[in-house]
Amino acid sequence: MSDTDATPTISTTVEESTSEREAQSSTGTARAVIESRNLDVRYGDVEALQSIDLRIPDQHVTAIIGPSGCGKSTFLRCINRMNDLVEAATIDGELLFNGTDVYGEEIDPVALRRRIGMVFQHPNPFPKSIYDNVAYGLRIQDITDDMDERVEQALRRAALWDEVKDQLDKSALDLSGGQQQRLCIARAIAVDPDVLLMDEPASALDPIATSKIEDLIEELAEEYTVVIVTHNMQQAARISDKTAVFLTGGELVEFDDTQKIFEDPESDRVEDYITGKFG
C-alpha cells in the first residue's frame, strides 16, 4: 500500500487533527476519521473486498451490515491492521486514519491499535481480576499515575462500575456474559482510543444484556467514533447514524444515513436485502 504523505507516527497525526476536529464540529460537519480508498483484500485466491471507498465520520455510530461472507469483518480488521496476523491476506489500496495511511511503512501497528480499540464477538476477558483487566492496557503503555481513578472511569463509561465496584479483585471470568463484554469495552476505552471497533458485540448475549450494550454504544458515540459489524438489521436501525451495506463478493453497495438506507435505499439490491428477499 502507498505511504504517500504519511506522517511519521499515529500519535502525531492525532494531535494535528485536533484543531481540524474542533473546526468542523463547530460547523456541524463531521470529518472522516476513517477513510478507505479503492481497498482490495484477498485471502489467497479468494477476493474478500473489492474496491471499497468509504468515509466513516467522527463521533458517530457507523453500522456495517450484509450477509455472511460479504467482507464485513474483513473490513473492520483492516482498520487496525488485525489482518496482518493472517498470512494469506493481501491488501491493496489505502486505508486512512486521520488522514494517514495505516499501512504506511512508518506506522507501528501496536501504536495504531492503541488509538483504534476493538471488541470481539465473544467476550474475551483475561484470566485476571476485574481491576487488572481494565488496568492491563494502561500498564503496557507505562501509564501508572491515577490508576485507580482511570480504572473507575473506564468502568463507569462502560456502565459496569455500580455492579462490580465492591468486587474488583474478583476474577473477570466469574462475571456474566454481558458483564464480561462490558468489561472488554472498559478495557478497550481505558487507554482513551479515538475509534472503537465492534465485531458482533451482542450476538452471543441474551436480549437484556444486548439492550445494555446497545444503550452503551449510543453513549460511547458522544466521545468516540464507533464502527459496529452486525447481522442484526434491527440493531443497526436502532443504534447507528450511518449504515454501510456490503453484499456477496465483498462489494460495498450503498452507504448513507441509516434512516435513508432502511426506508428509501437507492439500490434495488439493498432494498431486496433489507426486506429479506435475499441474503
TrEMBL record:
It comes from the Archaea. CDD domains: ABC_PstB_phosphate_transporter. Residues 7-16 have a biased composition (Low complexity). Residues 34-274 form the ABC transporter domain. Keywords: ATP-binding, Cell membrane, Membrane, Nucleotide-binding, Transport. InterPro entries: AAA+_ATPase, ABC_transporter-like_ATP-bd, ABC_transporter-like_CS, P-loop_NTPase, PstB-like. GO terms for molecular function: ATP binding. Pfam families: ABC_tran. The keyword Cell membrane applies. Residues 1-30 are annotated as: Disordered. NCBIfam families: 3a0107s01c2. PANTHER family: ABC TRANSPORTER I FAMILY MEMBER 17. This is Phosphate ABC transporter ATP-binding protein PstB. It comes from Halosimplex aquaticum.
